[in-house]
Structure formats: C-alpha cells, structure tokens
Amino acid sequence: MTTLYIWRHPKPLAAAGICLGHTDMGVDNRKLKRLAHHIERFVRVHQLPKVIWVSPLQRSLRVGQLLTQRGFVCHVTPELAEINFGTWDGQAWAQIGKEEIDIWCDNFADFAPKNGESLQELFERVATWLRVHNMTQSRVQNEALVTPDPEVKSDSEVVPILAVGHAGWITAAKMIAAGNPVPQLATEWSAPVAYNQLSIFKYARNV
Q1: CATH number for the domain whose boundaries are 2-203
Q2: 0.85 exceeded by the pTM?
C-alpha cells in the first residue's frame, strides 16, 4: 500500500478561460514560493521524506526547484504532466467550436482533440505511474526492514510519495485509487481540486 500526497500547482498567470493542459504557462514567483514553503512545513511537521516528484511544466517544476534549495530531492517526470489537449491547448474555451466540445462531452473517455490525448490515455498513463511507483516504494521499504517485525506484513506498509501535480491528473488518480472506471460522459467527471490544495489517498499495487 502506498500513500500519495499530491498538491495542485499554484494558479498560472492569465489562465482564466483557457484550455490549459500541456501549455507551459508561468506562475507568479510569490505563489510558487508560498506553496514551496507550505510543502516544506507540512513535510517537517509530519516527518515525511524530503523527496518531491514534479512534471516538466513550469507551474509544477518550479515548485520542485524551489524545494531543492531547501534540501529536497526533486524528480522530474513527464508522466505527471496534465492531459494534452492537442490543438485546443492554450486556446480560449470560447474559441473552440461548440460542435467539437459536444462530441467530446458525449464521448468523454475516447475523444481526443487533434494531436492530443484522450481521457482513456490519461488514465492509462496515471495508472502506470502509480503502479510503477508503488512497486518501487514497496521494494525500498522492504529492503529497509533489516529486522522486520513479524506482526507487520510488508505488503501492507504505507509508503509515502510526494508530488506537485495538475487538476486533471489528480482527479484521474483519485478515481483509479477508488476503483472507478474512466468516465464515459462529462457529467461523470469531478470538479477540479483548488490550486495549492493537498490531496491524500492510498492505493494498492493492483491499480
């Protein structure tokens, strides 16, 4: 069993009304520092490992870079990036044709904008990352138990992973951890978590 602590990145500059996925939009430096400080304090209070995973998108990446200045180890992985909206990415939602959006909403799991990524593909990417890191963390935990307690089963160990991620990725991860299928309709998709919000959930090896 693994516990994932994942913060959503701070609000990007000029993001209102924008279809924002892989577009690498900047964030005010004060907001980045505020989240980094909050994560550092949370880790200190809860005695968590000073290791953070981030995506290559600067709204996530720069938080990790600030934390490295505070003694953290930062890992950058493209698997943590937000969903890729392809040709829609970076456009105002108002500029995207209503017919295309209607098709997407009615075929929510499998539709992808041109050169983009479907929700099904996002779920597969997220599930793979969770599964790989659960197995890696479990192996590290088992190796650390030089004299294991016979009352504790190593497979049940709760191993923490810390990350700074994106709203769509976090929603997908929560649904996967809960055993929910990929939504077929837009109405089945949860509202995004707030900027800077921490989500904590546990998931097993068979995600």
Answers
A1: 3.40.50.1240
A2: yes
